[in-house]
Amino acid sequence: MAQTIDNPEITVLMPVYNGEKYLRLAIESILNQTFSGFEFLIVNDGSTDSSEAIVKSFSDTRIRLIQNTNKGLPNALNFGIHEAKGKYIARMDCDDIALPDRLIRELGVLQKNPEIDIVSSFVSLINPEGTPIKAWQDNGRAITNDEIIKQLPIENCLAHPTIMVKREVLLKYKYNAKQKYAEDWDLWLRMASGKCVFYKINELLLLYRIHLQSAQGLVLNKSHYYKKTKTLFRYFANKLKKININLFDLKVLRSACTSLVRYGIDLISPKLNRTLEQIFAINPFKVISQYSKLKKFCREENGRKDALCLFIPGTYGGKAADFYSELISLCAELNPIVFITSKPGGQFKDNTKVFDISLISDYPGFHRRVKRNILNKISKFQNCTLLGSNSVFYYNLLGSLNYSASCMDLIYLVENPSEAGEEMLKYDFPMLALPYVERLQHRIVVNEKQCGEIKELYENNNVDPKYLERITYFSKLREVIINN
């Protein structure tokens, strides 16, 4: 029997405060869902712009508009939770865009797995104009329940507007109005401490808009460690007042103390924090071992005059792994030297032609040595072709390259965040490559869309149009390499 507005399976809860700029797009993205059995509960939180008029312009009977005095987002959410009629509550923000299958995919998980209390998904960050920026890194670090529970004391790894939760669970925990700009993270921590079960769908189901008025945008100019320290200590203090401390809460306290120290360091030197993170995050013996193998290889005399060097990222399976495997296969007859420049997933580890420099390519004290060794190796070849793809190290290498090597890059955009290492998600590689356009004899693109984006990028940054002639499609890669 089809759900009606009086008996919805899902309540989509969306608070609105002066959100007129993006509100219509957000509402349309929910109304266009492939699952239709929901009520769309919109809480007008004292808006003074045209937000209320925009909501009322929609005639869809699934929309239910309620009024609330402006006391902040947590208050509006708690008000909406009590008003909701659905068995499940799906969060939505008035500036984001839900992809069509979001509700059906999340509902399916909860219906088939009654032990799960809360489900979320991956997001892609977009700018105010709606252009994708990148995937959210913290969102991709934890997928399973165990991984999420382990990660939550350290970072918020769940995107708030992607979640769908059992209404009974939200009624039990609610939002803490004192955790401004971190009400979601505080809620996840309390739910994790209370043994709730989490699940993350390994798919992109929402576009998360970043702008000055967004929750993310409001804290961009604040120290990451300041916000984190304040949130975690406030959480622990509340638990302490209730005399309800468990092992998970002690892990939160430990993370809070670490963050406090990092905040102090951040006040002195933000760069020092990044250096410490790199040093303590990696086993030093692995760093030394990786560098020793590279140094030994680079010292060896070349047994040939020509060489093809590939600089590619590590991947975690899926289309990204297949793509780079295909790249290596296309170049196999040329016996390429392959450098993995960012954290790998392991699919290339048994390939004896591959040199893993992911740990040392940006490690304090090693980066320059790694670059110097590889440059010296390149200089020993009479003819050398360099091809880099999604690699910060590669572009840094080009900046120091004084030899007459033929250089090109390959642009590959990751569709699924779970298939990519952090570096692939963190950087806008077409933009990063702009200073080296003149040095790149060929720029390899996968499809016409990428070609169009490169042309637009050149135009917006006043790049000489003559360099457009150097754009080549992936299908011609082998031919280009051989001719070089």
Can you characterise this structure?
This protein has 484 residues and is of the alpha/beta class. It folds into 3 domains: 10-219, Alpha-Beta Complex (Spore Coat Polysaccharide Biosynthesis Protein SpsA, Chain A), CATH 3.90.550.10; 222-281, no CATH class; 284-483, Rossmann fold. Helix content is 42%, strand content 18%. The protein has helices spanning 20-31, 51-56, 73-83, 102-112, 145-151, 167-173, 183-193, 215-218, 224-241, 247-268, 270-281, 284-299, 318-330, 367-379, 392-400, 422-426, 429-432, 448-460, 477-483, and strands at 10-16, 38-44, 63-67, 88-91, 97-98, 118-126, 132-135, 164-166, 198-209, 306-312, 337-340, 354-356, 383-389, 406-411, 440-445, 471-473. Helix 18 (448-460) links the parallel strand 15 and strand 16 (471-473). Helix 9 packs antiparallel against helix 10 (247-268), helix 10 (247-268) packs across helix 11 (270-281) and helix 12 packs parallel to helix 14 (367-379). The model is unreliable at 216-221 (pLDDT under 50).
Write a short abstract of this structure.
The chain is α/β, with parallel strands linked by helices and 484 residues long.
Structure keywords:
single chain, 484 residues, Rossmann fold, 7-stranded parallel sheet, 19 helices, 16 strands
